[in-house]
Write a structure and sequence with these properties.
Elements (H helix, E strand, L loop, with lengths): L4 H9 L4 H11 L5 E5 L7 E4 L6 E3 L4 E6 H9 L17
This protein binds zinc ion (ZN).
Length: about 90
Amino acid sequence: MTESKLQTLTKIEGYDDPIAMLEAEFDSGYRPGVPGICSNPGCDYSKDVEPDSKSGWCESCESNTVVSTIFLLGAISQKGGKPIHRKGENPNDT
Ligand SMILES: [Zn+2]
């Protein structure tokens, strides 16, 4: 696999550049969310999600793995920064 989820999603939506895709989405104004794509390897399920979504429902994988374009962009800009999946504190972990 040589292309990122962001590139795959951009292609699915019919754009060459993810920024152009987002601008078109915001310009159109009628869609309630932004394009999102399942983060599982080998799954290209996509649908509109909330802009800050990173746990949208994938009907293909039946798991909460659909992330929004904006999250993908943010994840890419944080080179060496915070991990994408933060483990929450587990006070009840016994
Ligand atoms: Zn999936």
